[in-house]
Specification:
Elements lengths: L14 H7 L2 H7 L10 H9 L11 H6 L4 E6 L7 H10 L5 H6 L3 E5 L2 E9 L2 E6 L6 H4 L1 H12 L15
Parallel strand pairs: 1-4
Antiparallel strand pairs: 2-3, 3-4
């Protein structure tokens, strides 16, 4: 929504990825000899025909949380394909024992290098992040933020970049 679409139907430039994956040394290391391209429509059709298209997986999240597996859902605030507000709303309606706690948890500022780059809501192992100035491909639009988010989530330190709350007496 914030940038003109200049790279075909997907609007993102995957040229560097294609150049890397199609390089002879990389293909040799991977043991492949095929030309890689992003979003190959013939491969996509095979996924669709196999039933792997628009499958509702959100019903599996309560079981993950019940098993103690932490879950992070994130969306760019400029994504019109999977908008952040719709994603936040379904996370709030998810049927799990800590739904009420999650729903009253604050949306706190998530910071990187002293700048607020996202809003984070988290409770009982379930987190939702709204990433600012990012579209459908958060890692391509905000690579530093995406890397920090991923690192924090996988190391169990997602709250380490949340702004401290000031409590007035």
């Amino acid at each position: 929504m914030r940038l003109p679409c200049e790279h075909g139907l997907l609007c993102y430039d995957f040229g560097m990825i294609a150049a890397y994956l199609n390089g002879p040394e990389v293909q040799k290391q991977l043991g492949v000899s095929r030309h890689w391209e992003s979003c190959n429509m013939m491969v996509d059709v095979q996924f669709v025909q196999a039933g792997d298209w628009m499958v509702n997986y959100q019903g599996l999240i309560p079981d993950l949380l019940a098993d103690g597996i932490k879950v992070l859902i994130y969306a760019g605030d400029q994504d019109f394909i999977c908008n952040w507000l719709g994603n936040m709303k379904w996370t709030q309606k998810l049927d799990w024992p800590h739904r009420a706690d999650f729903n009253v948890a604050p949306n706190r500022d998530y910071e990187l290098n002293g700048e607020t780059v996202a809003k984070l809501r988290t409770s009982n192992g379930f987190s939702f992040m709204q990433v600012f100035n990012a579209g459908h491909m958060v890692p391509m639009d905000q690579p530093a933020v995406a890397l920090q988010m991923f690192t924090d989530f996988t190391t169990g330190s997602l709250g380490s970049h949340v702004a401290s709350e000031i409590i007035l007496a």
